[in-house]
Amino acid sequence: MPEIKKYIGYAAVIITALILGRWYSKERDKLLMQGEPWIKSWTSLPGLVILIILSILVFLKLKFG
């Protein structure tokens, strides 16, 4: 039973990452079609969510090794 819970957790993380990645990709494509620079996509909501998640992961790695 613990194995199944572990795999369900892995699947949830992968599905969430795919949804967030597609959302970011759509926002990036929309901004690029409007002629905005590529860096502007990081100031959109999905870009900020990705940056916050990465910052949390780096902090956790530095704090707890």
Written overview of the protein:
With 65 residues, this protein is mainly α. It has one domain (2-64). Helices cover 80% and strands 0% of the residues. The chain has helices spanning 2-33, 45-64. Helix 1 crosses helix 2. The longest helix is centred in the first third of the chain and has 32 residues, at 2-33. The chain is flat and about 50 Å long.
Into which percent range does the helicity of residues fall?
over 70%
Low-confidence stretches: none
Number of strands: 0
Instruction: Give the mean pLDDT.
Output: 95
List the topology elements.
Blueprint: H1 2-33, H2 45-64
Brief overview:
This protein is mostly helical and 65 residues long. 80% of the residues lie in helices and 0% in strands.
Task: Summarize this structure as a short list of keywords or feature phrases.
mainly alpha; flat; 65 residues; 80% helix; 2 helices
